[in-house]
Specification:
- The complex is a heterodimer.
- Chain A is of the alpha/beta class.
- Chain A folds into two domains: 59-164 and 295-323 and 348-365, Rossmann fold; 166-292, Response regulator (Rossmann fold, 3-Layer(aba) Sandwich).
- Chain A has helices spanning 3-27, 30-35, 71-85, 87-90, 105-117, 134-142, 166-181, 197-210, 227-239, 253-262, 276-285, 298-310, 360-365; strands at 41-42, 59-65, 93-100, 122-125, 146-150, 160-163, 185-191, 216-222, 246-249, 270-272, 289-292, 318-320, 325-327.
- Chain A starts with a helix and ends with a helix.
- In chain B, strand 1 (154-155) and strand 2 (158-159) form a beta hairpin.
- Classes of the chains: A alpha/beta, B mainly alpha.
- At the A-B interface, strand 3 and helix 5 of A face helix 3, helix 11, helix 13 and helix 14 of B.
- Chain A: Its main location: other.
């Protein structure tokens, strides 16, 4: 089927894009770059094709979620449910169940054991720990259950990964900022939750860029991906009197903007996640903004991948999905930001390259 | 006599029994060797953490650092364990020693620093989590399969988790609590002044209780390591408050002095298994935690219904 070739070609494009995309990003609308990629791109050149035995449908699929206390996870579950209700998808799914264990590894192990007992065909997983579930995944695989992990992915190669490249995300933010500040200046780095995979990868990506420019100085604070916390720590950093020329932020960006507003400072260029408040404020106040966010449709994409593999399609073991991007030039109300929805709403609800298109009205109607 | 001694645990036993019956109706497969194994594995970490909390609660304190010690020992064990049986044993001993050391710090600060336990352990919670993050900045590590299997495997219907728990309970906990130390701990928790006047060395008793708590928390971490076969500095957070919940649910008094082991251990299983039952019952994930809290509250209220029947509030206050 020429699948191998397609993957290699795509890989080349992705890596080359790694160097060039950032420059392109400014001139081209972000979605154009994302649109150039196929849906199931392998993570890197070392990615193997995932071997799994074909199974007759329709399938019983379980979504094992960990934390449920933020908007992203709520939307993720709503979108996953909306996806399984689509007529074309519903045909392949006999039963779909969702469970959230909280950020508690043993509770999630218990929950997955329960799914093994229930005899599901696939478990789609947003993990509480990248390593802590490996042994229960072994058990699931031994019982003939396909495991697809997304967002907070797991380290074992027995599960399929579906995720956005967090390293690349950090890199893109940093490159864009460095261009804005002219290769020098004070950059405020607002990190996420210490010790998590996502925080480390994004920061590594950012550092890979920053360390190339001796004129760049960074100050790190931890905003925990939360508007309130981010606003507090940024306000503290501003109170120290340092002038920041740009902000690199992993999340809680609405809070970051508010902290600058409250201090009465001129808004520097901010590269950050994809919260609705952040984009809405950027549209209103016109400060330079780059927004690349983790899509809450990743859960639905995980289901799509699971069904494809169960049907016998050969897919890469690690799948890198497109990075939903917006800049000041591409902001469009009702499409990639929503002035009448809460600040905490995560805007990239669709992954068009993968045929996942949802509207805010539709997913908000879904009961969790 | 025996019933009187353990009657504070009755509520937890009845609640767990009802929960398991309902679970069996929803998912008959739990009555299989695999089902027995997962049920046992599910609650053992929290059961050990609850014992760690119980010994501190008996002294009239509360230990907020339980979860952090669980994380720290999980990180140490998964990082340094290696694959040779000798190194596994050495690292287990080291981990328990680190737990004892953590308890010692708490104990000394409480006993000689004269600081409220809740503040001391809140401060050490941050210190121990920081140490865990230093040992293991990123989740990972390796655990040999035989170690994981020895604690989480099973022989027919007998899960090894039960064996491990019973060893901790009957070879460590019971002898210690029946010794002079155990009596001293209860006495200090009930009435520190009275205990001092009766010749009990209060600071020493407090320190030993916290050390014992640290060792049990480290044992919980070791069990969790076998269950997850890896280390993660953020893994233990949920055990702090859940261990307090298990202790109260298991019939111990937060004021100190009263409480026996079976209650909190059984309550720990109840609290751990409930999430699977909610899943089996098909409750929406968004409401699962509401149900979890609601069921806990209903059970506790039900357990205290007898207070409505008494003629005199003094009987209730004395209890």
């Amino acid at each position: 089927m020429g699948e191998e070739n397609m993957q290699r070609r795509d890989f080349l494009r992705t890596t080359l894009a790694g160097a060039a995309a950032i420059a392109l990003n400014d001139t081209l609308p972000g979605m154009a770059i994302a649109g150039a990629r196929e849906c199931f791109s392998p993570w890197d050149s070392g990615t193997q094709t995932f071997a799994w035995k074909k199974k007759q449908g329709p399938y019983k699929i379980a979504l094992s979620n960990s934390y449920i206390g933020n908007m992203w996870r709520t939307e993720m579950i709503q979108i996953a449910k909306a996806y399984t209700e689509e007529p074309a998808v519903k045909r392949d799914i006999k039963e779909f169940m969702v469970s959230s264990a909280g950020n508690d590894v043993s509770a999630q192990i218990a929950q997955m054991n329960q799914m093994i007992l229930a005899g599901v065909d696939a478990i789609v997983l947003d993990a509480a720990s990248p390593t802590g579930l490996n042994s229960v995944i072994d058990q699931a695989v031994a019982a003939g259950i396909l495991v697809v992990s997304f967002d907070n992915v797991v380290t074992t190669k027995k599960a399929v990964w579906v995720n956005q490249n967090q390293f690349e995300m950090g890199q893109k933010w940093a490159n864009w900022l460095v261009q804005r500040t002219g290769d020098k200046g004070n950059i405020l780095v607002v990190r996420g939750v210490a010790g998590t995979f996502v925080d480390q990868e994004r920061m590594k990506g950012g550092e890979a860029v920053f360390k190339k420019y001796p004129g760049i100085k960074i100050t790190e604070v931890y905003g925990k991906w939360d508007d309130g916390t981010a606003q507090k720590v940024v306000a503290n950093a501003l109170a120290s009197g340092t002038k920041f020329d740009a902000v690199w932020s992993e999340g809680g960006d609405t809070g970051v903007v508010r902290a600058f507003q409250q201090a009465g400072l001129k808004m520097p260029p901010i590269a950050g996640e994809a919260e609705n408040g952040f984009r809405t404020l950027a549209a209103k106040d016109k400060f330079p903004m780059l927004s690349i966010g983790q899509s809450p449709a990743l859960g639905a994409l995980g289901i799509k991948v699971a069904v494809a593999i169960l049907k016998g399609e050969k897919l890469p073991q690690s799948i890198a999905t497109p990075q939903p991007t917006a800049t000041n030039a591409t902001l469009k109300p009702g499409v990639n930001y929503f002035p009448n929805l809460p600040d905490s709403f995560f805007t990239p609800i669709s992954i068009s390259d993968c045929g996942l298109n949802f509207t805010a009205e539709k997913i908000l109607k879904i009961k969790v | 006599m025996i019933f009187r001694r353990y009657n504070t645990s009755v509520l937890a036993v009845v609640a767990l029994g009802l929960l398991l019956i309902y679970y069996y109706i929803r998912q008959p497969l739990i009555l299989s060797p695999f089902g027995a194994k997962i049920l046992a594995n599910q609650g053992t970490t929290l059961a050990l953490a609850a014992l760690a909390q119980l010994v501190v609660v008996l002294t009239g304190g509360v230990d907020l650092s339980v979860g952090a010690v669980v994380s720290l020992s999980n990180c140490i064990a998964a990082t340094y364990m290696g694959s040779h049986p000798a190194s596994v044993i050495a690292v287990c001993v080291l981990t328990l020693a680190v737990g004892a050391g953590a308890g010692l710090v708490n104990g000394v600060l409480v006993a000689y620093g004269r600081i409220q336990p809740i503040i001391v352990t809140l401060a050490t919670l941050y210190i121990f989590s920081g140490l865990a993050l230093m040992v293991r900045p990123q989740p990972g590590g390796l655990v040999p399969p035989f170690y994981a299997n020895a604690l989480t495997g099973g022989w027919g219907y007998l899960p090894y988790a039960m064996v491990a728990l019973f060893v901790m309970l009957f070879a460590v906990w019971t002898p210690l609590m029946r010794s002079r130390l155990g009596t001293a701990i209860r006495a200090v928790g009930d009435n520190p002044g009275g205990a001092h006047m009766s010749g009990i060395n209060v600071p020493r008793t407090l320190i030993l209780a916290y050390v014992m708590g640290g060792v049990f928390a480290a044992a919980a971490g070791l069990y969790l390591t076998a269950q997850t076969t890896s280390g993660d500095a953020a893994i233990g957070t949920s055990y702090t408050l859940n261990s307090v919940a298990a202790v109260v649910f298991g019939g111990a008094l937060l004021g100190g002095g009263r409480g026996v082991a079976p209650g909190p251990v059984i309550a720990a299983y109840f609290l751990s298994i409930i999430i699977s039952v909610l899943f089996a019952a098909g409750i929406s994930p968004f409401y699962q935690s509401v149900f979890q809290g609601g069921i806990l509250m209903v059970v506790l209220v039900f357990g205290n219904l007898w207070t409505l029947r008494t003629r005199n509030w003094l009987t209730i206050l004395k209890n």
